[in-house]
Amino acid sequence: MATVASDLEQYQPTEEGSLGAARFLDKMLGTLWDKGLTWRPTLDPKDLKHHAMRAEDRAPKEGCWEDRLDILTQALDEEAKLSPLGRAIAHGQLVRKIRCRIRAEAQWARNPAIRDRKVVAPLIIVGQMRSGTTRLHRLLARDPHFVHTRAYETMIPMPGGGRIDKRPVTATANLLFLRTLNPLLAAVHPTGPYQAEEEFGLHAMSIFGAQYEGQWMVPSFARHCETCDRTGVYEEFKAVLQTLGAVRHEPEDKPWVLKAPQFTQDLEVLHEVFPDARYLFLHRDPVSVVGSSASLAWQQARVQSCSADRDAIGAEWLHKTKLRQDRQRAFRQAHPHVPALDIRFDHVNEDWRREIGRVYDFIGRTLDPDVEAAMADFLANSKAHKRHDYDIRDFGLDPQDVASAF
User: 114 lies in a domain?
Assistant: First the structure.
């Protein structure tokens, strides 16, 4: 739990955990590159697009995503302080996202009716990182009334060719690899290939948002994503949801339950694209949110950088959290009649059945006893995971200063 004391004299950094596998790979890759024994991955946008085009045998369409790719790759070179392993991971991720774009464009060209599928009254969970959105999302995902994205779909939104969908196997391998590189990630954000997962990977196809900002220090890219026109991003986001629904043969009138902290800073455009959406707004004290968010970003960044800066990460997530809160307040003031329910993190801790009951009253449904039992099983299993320990002072932040900023 984040400390609420302002006395820094007693402060001791929390345990970082071992990164032996990551540092071994850094050394090995650096040696191979220096000796010319293997190819050094490029972050040049033209080369990334070329690799994706060669793998998919077609080119992606031009668009604003290319401007964001230019900004992101420059930030990776100049700001992220990538290690050799980090550079290899960044190259692979960006090529995969461009390949997903190519697959999506091909799918829409073959079957334009996909873009006409309805996305009816989605239930959208809105909250800061580390505010309990994942818990609520996974509870509601136990109800077959809702459609939700699974982790393998978030990691690889578009299936490739062939009769067998290889995405679950690929996602499983990727998750095992990440846990090997930093075992603490499983405590910070436990997941599995079929687990309900937020839609950050759908945004990443547009070279946008939290998947990139959460694992690399790329502040120039983050500032661009905060201020650019995001309409096209969310139109593509909706199109990918329509495609996933079609691939899975989901009924069009079956509502999605969606969750991504990114939504908190993009509510105006989200509302434009999904005008009949219903919102669940989650709240947690900002000191805990900032400290836990910085800890997650730190655990991601230190895998891919040998010189990740804790204080810089703390300052970045203080900025992001404040920006998102301000935008959420502005949205709700501008749209007081949008259907919305407020839920507090500590209230869910106290009595999750009561809070889930409030959700079902809000959406006008009766909670099925079998669904409630499945929710209880999920929470019981979740308690077996290692607790996420952190201290906000690890990131150069005083708890009282953070509290006063909000």
Answer: no
